[in-house]
Amino acid sequence: MKNFNFKSASNAKEAKKLFSNRSAYLAGGMTLLPAMKLRLAAYSDIINIKKIKTLSGIKISSKSLRIGWTTTHYEVASSKEVGKSIPSLSLLAEGIGDPQVRNRGTIGGSIANNDPAADYPSACLALNATIHTSKRAISADKFFKGMFETDLKKGELIESVEFQIPEKSSYAKFPNPASRYAIVGVYVAKLKNEVRVSITGAANCAFRSKELELALSSNFTASAVESVNISKKGLNADIHASAEYRANLIKVFAKKAVEAC
Predict the structure, then answer these.
(1) Is residue 1 predicted with pLDDT exceeding 80?
(2) Which whole-number Å values give the CA distances from 95 to 102, 128, 137, 187, in the listed order?
(3) For a surface tag, which of 80, 87, 151, 208 has the fewest beta carbons within 10 Å of its beta carbon?
(4) Which of the 8 DSSP states describes residue 227?
């Protein structure tokens, strides 16, 4: 790991002022620190935002659930508000990594990193989330651009993520037995005016399945998934699973998710 300056911000305005082109924000550090240790990334300044109180916490309204960037996975998993309004999101958070990761990792860090196999991006897409930053509000459909790539600009700070509260929803995944990352994860949500289905782990970025959404919009049952053809084109193929296997897993876990709704 190369030398860097460690700075701590007490509020969002100060964090933005401290930021430069060679800076990075630090919350839980579950992705940033390993990348720096392996010399996959290097920064002149690390800006600690964990102490900014306005970036943490969970707020619920009649239509949405809003979670601050520095809220940990454990806090999401154990929150009564989350468990009551979107239980599938609580279960998703409970299945991330191990206790150490859940107690340090944050929802904002996971979304900003946009790992192809991370769980939260699928929740953002399925629950029609809005990512609120220091500059604007970004629809989840426009936020996730590609492998480790988002619509965030240099120095732009995620402040909170706002999820729509669905009528029904469920998340089912086939996890890597070591890391708990999703080899394939499927998030199904029945909102007031639409059905949304998102996939993680299967491609270079979480994405929505229009085929599954169309089938479930007319018949929200597991049997509706049977007739859907999932193409292997563009899907990941690695030591864990072939593209063909991942295509099959999408159907299998879509059915599991619908049955659990």
Answers:
(1) no
(2) 9, 21, 28, 13
(3) 80
(4) T
The pLDDT score that the predictor gives to residue 91 is 97
Length of the chain: 261
Residue 190's domain comprises 56-261
Query: Which amino acid, 235?
Result: L
Mean pLDDT of all residues in 64-90: 97
- Please identify, among 52, 72, 91, the residue that sits at the C-terminal boundary of a domain: 52
Of 243, 94, 259, residue with least CA distance to 183:
243
* Helix-helix angle 210-218:243-260, to 10 degrees: 30
pLDDT tens digit string along 168-183? 999 999 999 988 999 9
Single out the residue of 195, 202, 208, 200 nearest to residue 169, CA to CA. 195
| Ranges of H-type helices in 19-119 | 32-37, 73-78, 80-85, 87-94, 99-104, 107-113
Question: How many domains are there within the chain?
Answer: 2
CATH assignment at residue 16? 3.30.43.10
